[in-house]
Design brief:
SAM-dependent_MTases_sf; 9-stranded mixed beta sheet; globular; Methyltransf_11; Methyltransferase type 11 domain-containing protein; alpha/beta
Length: 260
């Protein structure tokens, strides 16, 4: 996974939409304390920076060192590289020990995780009671250009990692073994609209940051060659057009079960 995103880290950091501030306000209102948040798979730190407005400190981790090099610096955010082979005990200690985390967030990354291992650590480090875990993502459902996005994503099918189908299906099949607190539950994610002003250049940048596009490129296939970009430009309405779009995202929020 780390290799897929290392090759396009700068593009990823510049192209992805900004998560709504009221999402973080809602999540912060759910936690009993506001001492520590953990943003997992932080990438360029977009969610971590927003969490810093609500928590005393934020630990933001990622398996990709290259992604972290492009993360936004903030005095309350501590970025840490967590290799795939890092022992769970070390990670728990790095986060401050069991019961030390008020909120865990995972933005557009959970489908890449070893979920049983991650959830085991999440249950250990979340404060009990009062700790909250929130996972969200988005896919090709972008209004009002969903048809165009669907046609493009269909070209990526031969190069998709099987894990990305969890995201393509809106996390409806993503395991989420936590108690429901009213913002999406296992099998029934809540809807989350992410409004974004996007240029055509931004659209192409976002598409270039898709893992399947990188995989195709490694296999000698350019899914965003000159002809493909020209077709997208025509559908978009011109290279100079900036459009207001809405990513139709999906959200799961829960708290550790009493028996955990």
């Amino acid at each position: 996974m780390a290799g897929l995103f290392s090759k396009q880290a700068a593009v990823y950091a510049a192209a992805r939409p900004v998560y709504p501030k009221d999402l973080f306000t809602k999540l912060a209102a759910l936690t009993a304390h506001h001492r520590l948040a953990w943003d997992v798979g932080t990438g360029s730190g977009q969610a971590a920076i927003s969490l810093a407005e609500h928590y005393d400190s934020v630990v933001a981790t990622d398996v990709s060192e290259e992604q972290l090099l492009h993360a936004t610096i903030h005095s309350k955010v501590r970025y840490l590289h967590t290799p795939d082979a890092m022992p769970g005990e070390d990670l728990v200690a790095m986060l401050g020990g069991e019961g030390s985390v008020d909120l865990i967030t995972v933005a557009e990354a959970a489908h890449w995780f070893d979920l049983p291992a991650f959830y085991d650590i999440a249950r250990r480090v979340l404060r009990k009671p009062g700790g909250v875990i929130a996972i969200w993502g988005y896919n090709y459902r972008v209004s009002p250009v969903e048809d165009m996005m669907t046609r493009f994503f269909n070209t990526t099918l031969p190069y998709r990692d099987p894990r990305t189908w969890l995201c393509m299906n809106g996390y409806k099949d993503l395991p989420f073994p936590f108690d429901d607190i009213g913002l999406g539950r296992e099998g029934e994610p809540a809807s989350l609209d992410i409004d974004h002003e996007m240029s055509f250049e931004g659209l192409i940048g976002m598409l270039r940051s898709v893992a399947a596009v990188t995989t195709a490129k490694q296999q000698g296939v350019d899914l965003l060659g000159e002809r493909e970009v020209k077709e997208l430009e025509e559908e978009w309405g011109g290279a100079s057009l900036v459009r207001k779009v809405t990513f139709k995202a999906f959200l799961l929020v829960g708290t550790p079960r009493a028996e955990d």
